[in-house]
Write a structure and sequence with these properties.
Layout: H1 4-10, E1 17-23, H2 29-44, H3 50-67, E2 72-78, E3 82-89, H4 114-121, E4 124-129, E5 134-141, E6 171-175, E7 181-184, H5 186-192, H6 196-199, E8 208-209, H7 220-223, E9 228-236, E10 242-253, E11 259-267, H8 307-321, E12 326-332, E13 338-345, H9 349-352, E14 356-358, E15 373-375, E16 395-403, E17 406-415, H10 423-467, H11 472-483, E18 490-495, E19 504-510, H12 516-524, E20 538-539, H13 542-558, H14 566-580, E21 585-592, E22 595-603, H15 612-649, E23 661-667, E24 678-686, E25 689-697, H16 701-720, H17 725-737, E26 746-755, E27 761-768, E28 774-776, E29 782-783, E30 803-807, E31 812-816, H18 818-821, E32 824-825, E33 828-829, H19 831-840, H20 847-861, E34 870-876
Helix pairs in contact: 2-3, 3-4, 8-10, 10-15, 11-15, 13-14, 16-17
Length: 883
């Protein structure tokens, strides 16, 4: 109990009543303390301030008993102007979190909120210490006296202030009307690593990692246009890591009247520095709005579309109304077959959020969800309220939320003691649930509509991205990047090559890049999920079990290691990876063309669950992704087959001809084509004789490639049968005409070559409708050693002749297809004269250098890519080496 001296120093009015009680350091004492304060104030006739007093007492006694671990003394004092309640504990060394300190707990945590609530609800409050006692007090003004300016309480001595690890840094970034950063202070440089000159003029969106759950929240660009906005997101630092921050954005005008946005950012665990504490609405009269009805205060307080805020306030008021130790609210799915946990207080909400239980049948069902129910002892009815399993709660009361007779949810309050609730309290809770049900359903439908609109946009964008590639690896990467972090914290893709093959881990992605390697290692140690032949989402417990086992084994090893050990660092990484994959994991089969081609695995971190709407969206995405992945697979197979067949049409490596340099350059037009209508060949005929050919089939693509294969193989066979050049081409002409409608006319330069003992080479050539060969002599002169003759594949009766050519040492014979000579740039064409001019400058070069220089000149002649196949065959007789 507080010391009399303390009361005398802080009291300015005459005390007219007092009541005191002490409570043991056990969990049920919190509810007993709430009942003591409620009964005391009810007896004094101050029902209009009971709700605020009970809420604050609950938080302060919880701090003393649950968190400080000591007994709690509660003293209620009444004067003519106010009621003062003092809560003391026996742990004065415990640091008190203050506004502005980095140790202040976030508002959404389950502890450490007592002083924040005092600041929000009380007219005055403070903290006092003695050598053996710590006391937190708050004062609630009675309604007949206007509420004045609230005080945050007396200043603490410097020695009693909490110690921060480092000073709290507030990053300041100012954004101009175009969204570009114009101000970046030193704290921003320290927090995120970017110097000011590196971010000036760049959009904040380039550095922000915004939550992208479809239909939920506002885009970062839109948030900067609001008059004021507060919330959490991430900023990527210079190393690519995401730093969670809490931000306050304020829209202002500069001295020129131009709009800009001032952004204040702190680390997310220091959010209390910027976060606006919740306030109870003020009535028009200027006094605080108090009511005996605990639900009247918050109905309509949250924004119409703030479902989470509405649900959280509902469970907190429900708990206080029935003096419970915990409260929870679940919403029904559209088909009313399952209930989904959406808000809790007094329970580990992060662990339970979005968990689902069946309504009617099956193991773990949610008891009588459609009717009010009072559970005197949960240990005697295991599983009656699955949410309370292993929480220590013994009794509970649950009531349904209904709109027009349809089940929309369930509200419950629980206590650690058995037999705490009666039918009368169930009726009170049902009355409150009936009042809030319509507001909850309206907010839920609004959230669902926004989610569905966002889902449609998400699926449209996903379809466009998946349709934009036929590369299998890129499709896998897109699948993962679209699901993380929008739908899940991490994902993995298993692919199945055929029905006889086991699933293969093809791609892994985590929202934290540092966790990807550890996640791959973890998944590699467990068997993949078994493929199924039916669509639908199913749970997969193996990753969570493997993560828990890894964490257990690692913790055992850690006991014998120092913090500076390299192995200890690896242990920390293992524990972080285990926590990152320890939540709910689901498997979505990938079906395409009536067969399973893989599985998409989505996962959450430890103790987190998926929303039903997210799973439905993931199913839609998996169907689109499966078809895109199968299309990419089929395309890859077709390309591989096509390229294999095309390579079979190309000649093997050119033979080494004694005393002759040979160089070939070949470029097929069209993406994915290795062979087109142009072709070449150099091959031995018999001892000392070699054949060479370069030709051009009309057109490009597979049809031209088919005639190419016919021509190349026919030339080799006929030449080796001993036929001369004209006979070879005449028989080839007949073979092309025999193809009928599939035939294509063909231009062909065919020759036979005999190296001579004196270092020269004797040639016989036939030029059937093909660009004439050019001969380059050592003195730079260029001529054509052949005459044009009719092309092949047009006339049946051809009379061709061959011409003899001698190449002296230093001579070069250049043979090309019309893709070279007909290279165009607008109205200009390279032509035979242009090619001869290029060849003139190749005096003294090797055959390889000549071919390369010609191809370079052709490529530079026009900026656009070539639309026709191109082939170059260069033969050079090397000059004898000088002694």
């Amino acid at each position: 109990m507080a010391e009399p001296g303390v009361e005398t120093r802080t009291r300015s009015s005459v005390i007219t009543a007092r009541a005191a009680a002490s409570f043991d350091p056990v969990g049920r004492s919190v509810a007993t303390a709430r009942a003591f304060v409620r009964d005391t104030l009810q007896g004094w006739g101050h029902s209009d301030i009971i709700d605020d007093a009970v809420v604050l007492t609950s938080e302060l006694v919880t701090n003393a008993i649950v968190h400080a671990g000591t007994s709690a003394d509660v003293l209620c004092l009444r004067t003519e102007d106010y009621v003062r309640i003092e809560v003391g504990d026996r742990y004065p060394e415990r640091e008190i979190p203050l506004q502005g300190s980095h140790v202040l707990a976030p508002l959404d945590s389950e502890n450490g909120r007592g002083l924040q609530l005092c600041s929000a609800l009380a007219s005055r409050w403070g903290v006092e210490y003695t050598s053996t006692f710590k006391q937190v007090w708050f004062q609630l003004d009675l309604p007949q006296r206007p509420v004045g300016t609230r005080s945050a309480g007396p200043a603490l001595p410097t020695a009693l202030l909490p110690v921060a690890d480092e000073r709290v840094r507030v990053a300041v970034a100012q954004i101009d009307r175009t969204g570009a950063i114009s101000v970046w202070n030193e704290d921003a440089e320290h927090l995120f690593g970017y110097p000011a000159d590196q971010v000036f003029g760049k959009p904040l969106a380039d550095f922000a990692a915004w939550p992208h759950t479809p239909g939920i929240g506002t885009g970062i660009a839109e948030a900067l246009q609001l008059s004021r906005w507060e919330g959490s997101y991430g900023i990527r630092d210079t190393e690519g890591r995401v730093i969670p921050v809490y931000a306050s954005h304020l829209r202002v005008r500069d001295t020129h009247g131009e709009p800009s946005t001032v952004c204040l950012l702190v680390r997310d665990d220091e959010r209390a520095v910027l976060q606006t504490p919740p306030r109870i609405p003020v009535a028009d009269s200027g006094t605080e709005s108090h009511s005996a009805d605990p639900f009247e205060v918050f109905i309509g307080s949250p924004a119409p579309d703030d479902l989470d805020g509405l649900l959280q306030r509902t469970v907190e008021r429900a708990r206080d109304m029935l003096d419970g130790d915990a409260a929870f609210l679940l919403l029904a799915t559209d088909d009313e077959t399952e209930l989904e946990v959406r808000a809790t207080t007094g329970l580990p909400s992060a662990r339970q959020r979005f968990a689902r239980v069946p309504v009617e049948a099956g193991s773990g069902r949610y008891g009588s969800a459609r009717m009010p129910a009072v559970h005197d002892d949960l240990t005697s009815v295991p599983g009656a309220v699955p949410l309370l399993n292993t929480t220590g709660m013994r009794s509970a009361v649950t009531v349904p939320l209904k709109v027009e007779g349809r089940l929309t949810g369930s509200l419950g309050v629980a206590a650690e003691a058995s037999g705490r609730y009666t039918n009368e309290e169930a009726l009170r809770l049902q009355f409150a649930a009936d009042r809030i049900a319509l507001a909850v359903e309206s907010a839920r439908l609004g959230e669902l509509e926004r989610l569905r609109r966002g889902s449609l946009s998400f699926l449209v964008e996903a379809s466009d991205l998946l349709a934009g590639t036929l590369d299998k690896d890129q499709t896998l990467a897109l699948m993962a990047q679209m699901t993380v972090p929008t739908l899940a914290t991490w994902c993995a893709v298993y692919t199945i090559a055929d029905q006889a093959s086991a699933p293969y881990l093809s791609y892994v992605l985590h929202e934290d890049e540092d966790r990807i390697d550890g996640l791959k290692a973890l998944l590699a140690k467990i068997a993949p999920p078994a493929p199924v032949s039916t669509p639908g989402v199913r749970a997969w417990a193996a990753p969570a079990k493997a993560a828990q086992q890894a964490a257990l084994e690692t913790s055992k090893r850690e006991l014998g290691l120092g913090s500076s050990s390299p192995v200890s660092s690896g242990i920390g990484s293992t524990l972080a990876t285990a926590a990152a994959v320890g939540g709910e994991t689901v498997v979505l089969p990938l079906f395409a063309r009536n067969r399973a081609i893989g599985m998409l695995i989505l996962g959450k971190p430890t103790d987190e669950h998926f929303r039903q709407e997210i799973l439905e969206l993931a199913e839609d995405l998996s169907r689109r992704a499966a078809l895109a992945l199968d299309n990419a697979r089929l395309y890859s197979e077709r390309v591989a087959i096509s390229q294999s067949l095309q390579r079979s049409l190309l000649p093997p490596e050119s033979p080494q001809i004694p005393g002759v340099e040979v160089e070939v350059i070949y470029r097929a037009a069209g993406e994915g084509n290795e062979v087109g209508g142009d072709f070449y060949d150099v091959f031995p005929i018999r001892d000392g004789a070699y054949g060479f050919a370069i030709g051009d089939v009309c057109g490009t693509g597979p049809e031209a490639a088919a005639v190419t294969g016919l021509a190349r193989h026919a030339l080799r066979l006929l030449a080796r049968e001993g036929f001369g050049g004209p006979a070879v081409l005449e028989r080839l002409n007949a073979a092309i005409l025999d193809e009928g409608s599939r035939s294509r006319f063909l231009t062909l330069l065919y020759g036979e070559l005999w190296p001579q003992e004196d270092g020269s080479a004797r040639l016989k050539v036939v030029c059937a409708g093909h660009p004439l060969p050019l001969r380059l002599r050592p003195d730079g002169t260029v001529d054509s050693p052949a005459e044009p003759q009719p092309l092949l594949g047009v006339m049946e009766d051809l009379e061709l002749f061959e011409e003899s050519v001698t190449l002296a040492p230093g001579d070069v014979l250049l043979c090309v297809t019309d893709g070279i000579t007909e290279r165009r740039e607008g109205s200009r064409m390279l032509g035979d004269d242009g090619l001869a001019e290029v060849l003139t400058g190749c005096t003294g070069l090797t055959a390889g250098a000549v071919a390369a220089r010609v191809m370079r000149a052709v490529e530079r002649f026009a900026a656009e890519p070539a639309s026709d196949d191109m082939a170059i065959l260069a033969l050079r007789i090397p000059e004898p080496r000088k002694p």
